[in-house]
Write a structure and sequence with these properties.
Blueprint (H helix, E strand, L loop, with lengths): L13 H18 L2 H17 L33 H16 L5 H11 L11 H11 L3 E2 L9 H12 L5 E2 L1
Parallel strand pairs: 1-2
């Protein structure tokens, strides 16, 4: 279920789930291959089932001791990678927007409501959660391309949309 931290290993971390789901969503956006979107959604569902504890995501699945700690924690601080909770919040928001649902918005709202008030002392190391908060509060620019996937005109429109980078766009 989900991704393991090392090939053939048994340790699963929320950081791995969040980062892989984000990579899968990015691959979907660039290629329009529905397999990436389905894999990202399946990964998000594993995260919600195994790691969500009602206010935030734990670093390891519920009921499992961590690789270095005996007590699971909520990874909120960016150290050294963007926090698993910040990345997961962004993934869930993107999934909802791509799928046209509100399935994941409520957990994101709970996460941000619980975590954001205490982030000020973390400064720069709270960036992932603050970016998620910005994405929660502001709808991204949506680029919708309608046409047959094998039509060269559809491909040209998609290529043109992908050439212009914008941090808050959704294709």
């Amino acid at each position: 279920r989900g991704f393991v931290h090392t090939p053939g290993g048994a340790i699963r971390t929320m950081d791995d789930q969040a980062q892989m789901a984000l990579a899968l969503l990015t691959a979907y956006e660039v290629t329009a291959d529905g397999h990436y979107l389905a894999a990202a959604r399946a990964t998000a569902d594993v995260a919600m089932t195994d790691y969500w504890d009602g206010d935030a995501f734990l670093d390891v699945p519920r009921g499992v001791a961590g690789p270095g700690l005996d007590v699971p924690v909520h990874p909120l601080q960016d150290a050294p990678t963007p926090s698993a909770n910040g990345v997961a919040a962004r993934v869930l928001l993107r999934l909802d927007r791509l799928l046209g649902t509100d399935t994941y918005r409520q957990p994101v709202e709970r996460l941000l409501s619980a975590a954001v008030p205490g982030l000020a002392p973390n400064g720069l190391h709270a960036s992932a959660l603050l970016i998620a908060l910005d994405e929660f509060l502001h709808e991204p620019a949506h680029v919708t391309i309608i046409g047959a996937p094998d039509d060269p005109r559809t491909a040209a429109l998609r290529d043109a949309a992908l050439r212009v980078w914008r941090p808050d766009r959704l294709i």
